[in-house]
Fold each of these.
Amino acid sequence: MKTIEIELYKIDELAGQALAKALDKLREATEFDHAFMTEEFHGVLEALGFTGIECRFNSFGSQGDGASFTAHYAYNIDWLEDLGFEDADLIAIGTELEKLRIRSAEIMASGRYCHSGTMDVEVIEGDTALEDGLLTEARCLADRYYRQLEIDYNYQFSDDTLMESARANGLEFTADGEIWS
């Protein structure tokens, strides 16, 4: 039988290229958890009068990246109460939607990209001249969602967060930064 000894290190014991490699390996092994942000976004949309919501987003940093959603929209008279918290941007959007008072509309998205520019609106019941106003507010919501996702993504994959996760999970690394299983 052959015995091999390997020195293992905690994340805080690594430096230079070994630390950089360990962080890269942790990024590769980490999946972006956007469930909370998406759930919160759905809640905001529902409070504002959107139902049957389907969200799409992709990546951060490439052409065509962004977020969009499809949904049915009907003005919700209780939107401010249903929103449940004060946020100046959301209140401004809600106020604009309130001015429109569209009874029924469909928010659509098409194409291979996911950004808000792929979204369109069809008013089913109400003044079709108001479609542009609804589309503007829907796009503002999609862009806001994307910005929040990007902030959360950058947080989840930051060096500090990855190092804290490695500490909390007791991960060990070889001298060259490989994760030891």
Amino acid sequence: MVRLNDIASAAARVKQDRKAMSCLIRLAYDKETLAGWRAEVPEGFRFALKAPQRITHQKRLSGCEETVAFFYRVVAELGGKLGPVLYQLPPNMKKDLPLLASFLDLLPPGGRAAFEFRHATWFADDVYGALRARNAALCVAESEELEVPLVATADWGYLRFRKADYGGPDLEAWAERLRDQPWTEAFAFFKHEEEGKGPRLAAALLALVESRP
């Protein structure tokens, strides 16, 4: 079992050099640094990555075969500690089902990919079907700007909690919704990193989810 304090300590060490992390974003990650991250964290820890904007914003999922292949060759350095990869699309990118289907074909089998759609046209049954065919998760991102439906498109879930704050009743409501999902596991992220509240909120949500069978 991985203890929360072990994870927090390892994550703190990994995040010490913010300049290096910024460079990695620009360079689409670096194998040597990723190998160092892999060695720093305990067994059971997994890195959830965000795909480079070169794929999602510049190329907008089109004509990026080489970029996707390079990205996965590099992040393979994380080995079994590689978790899901989030593809966050631009807010002005509307639904294009053939494009999505073609892009899904580029992803390595067995890997986990989550898609955060920020235009309401994507929230449709045919999109959910395309994601289900590849066991890719619909990213359920709760914010003030857009309401994303809680739809399971994979046997695992991916959630981003982006509102300004979450009180006890908010977390209890989400715990109830999460318990109803058919997922074997879920990755949940809170926005509140600057205030330092994210870990506390995540721990509270986890406790609520696990408080009932």
Amino acid sequence: MTEHEAAHEAEAPETPPEAQNEAQDAPEGETAGDKGQLSREAAKYRAQLRETEAERDALTERVTELRTHIAEIALGDHMRDPAALWKFGYTVDDVCDPETGYPDAAKISDAANTVQTAVQGAPRRPKPDPNQGRGGSALPRPRRMEDALM
């Protein structure tokens, strides 16, 4: 060994035993620095995944709100209070076409009729109004012919 090689070995710090173990555990071509870089990169991708999932969940919620609003508009033709449908356990998926996701007029009509029957009970016959047909006019009847002409 030459003097120059001996001096170079003396300048190089010794590798700690933990680093030597990590270097031995790492596959060929990877070092502890590469592992740290891979770990940071994986953390970055995990953070992007969480952001994307949160955005997806927010968009899914917004689409559900819009579908509910559209279904309530369609229910307005059948019910006085369209929100009553949701109180009876129906969901927006129950009144929408499963393939397109749009409200289905037949499903909406069936659901509205079911809820109205549940709320009102069995259909009842209307009670007769005793005042109909009696001719109850508010103006007094004229007694003489000349009173009628005036």
Amino acid sequence: MSNDISIVTSTMPAHLKKGTNLGNENISSEHLSTPRLKQLQQLSNEVDENHSEYIEGAKVGDFINTVTKEDYGKELYLVNVHFKEEFVVWKQLEKGGGLIGTFPTQAEALQKLEDENLKVVKLATRLRKDYEKLYKELREMVYPKLGEEK
């Protein structure tokens, strides 16, 4: 039996009512992580004993909290208190995987995917040009023009 006492009040101290956010000036959405309920699958890192994200005792089909890594087992009883539709964009597993971002509309999510694809195309174009330049320089070193000595 616990002797802990909790006092619940609806009043807030005056210094908190002002909403100064002192101490939180440098915190942005990039520093925060929204907890998600995740059902583990065969390829989930959390069930792979050789992966850094492995959770001791986690099994395929279990539900976990993505922030606390708490394993809730295979069954949950949930009560929705808030519903928010978001469109989540993930990086392809072959390209390193990971969350790119969440967006309030499908159009914004698709725009982000298009922007990411354009970045890949620009990088591929630059790499191609670098390759062609290097190939040309190597070819000139290996096969110098007639009459020239290097």
